[in-house]
Amino acid sequence: DSGVTQTPKHLITATGQRVTLRCSPRSGDLSVYWYQQSLDQGLQFLIQYYNGEERAKGNILERFSAQQFPDLHSELNLSSLELGDSALYFCASSVAMDLNTEAFFGQGTRLTVV
Amino acid sequence: LAKTTQPISMDSYEGQEVNITCSHNNIATNDYITWYQQFPSQGPRFIIQGYKTKVTNEVASLFIPADRKSSTLSLPRVSLSDTAVYYCLVGAGDGGSQGNLIFGKGTKLSVKP
């Protein structure tokens, strides 16, 4: 158990809908990362937050948005969903904002868009 | 962020030592080298991190030559449970805008009995 909690574990929704994925980082971790992993694809970095502020942006679509709340949990919002958005979405957390520190990954949310 | 190149796949047998090499020709002075392991449908797990020379922990060793343009992850006496994808990451440890975790394609290691 990495200490990072993601909910829900599975999500099935229809095209055009909107969903929210939730991530609770490890206790004490200030940095949260979001990743998308499609079938047989690598991990695509989406966005990073540190202590409530956006730190870095990757290949995140305009239909996607995220935020980190004062209690440090984070939410990833996916709207106008398309079939191609079906993927595993991972959240990771670390103490600091840089690569010197180990990042811990959650078990992921498997999103299926039908 | 320094780009990394790894073999797409590797095969090994139980009990053998496996060495996976990662090339990062454009590594910057303040970049660290980190390796993660990922099993199917699970989040990646940190294995080891280093800056130069050799680092060893309970699961692996990381060898980094003096020029730091490559690194080698060494897994001693692999077992079937080491079958996974291994990612090499190189990035700044200075908390700058490029200090995010960018994963490449990784190396898919298959361990056979």
Describe what you observe in this structure.
The complex is a heterodimer of chains A (114) and B (113). Chain A has 114 residues and is mainly β. Chain A is built from no helices and 11 strands. Chain A has strands at 5-7, 10-13, 19-24, 31-37, 44-50, 53-57, 64-68, 74-78, 87-94, 104-105, 109-113. In chain A, the strands form 2 sheets. In chain A, strands 2, 4, 5, 6, 9, 10 and 11 form a 7-stranded mixed beta sheet that branches. Chain A is globular and about 40 Å long. Chain A starts with a strand and ends with a strand. Chain B has 113 residues and is mostly beta strands. In chain B, a hairpin with a 4-residue loop joins strand 5 (53-56) and strand 6. Classes of the chains: A mainly beta (114), B mainly beta (113). At the A-B interface, strand 9 and strand 10 of A face strand 3, strand 4 and strand 8 of B.
The helix-strand sequence of chain B is EEEEEEEEE
Principal-axis shape of chain B: globular
Secondary structure category of chain B? mainly beta
How much of the sequence lies in strands of chain A comes to over 45%
Helical amount of chain A: under 10%
Detail the poorly predicted runs of chain B. 93-99
Radius of gyration of chain B: 14 Å
Distance between the termini of chain B: 38 Å
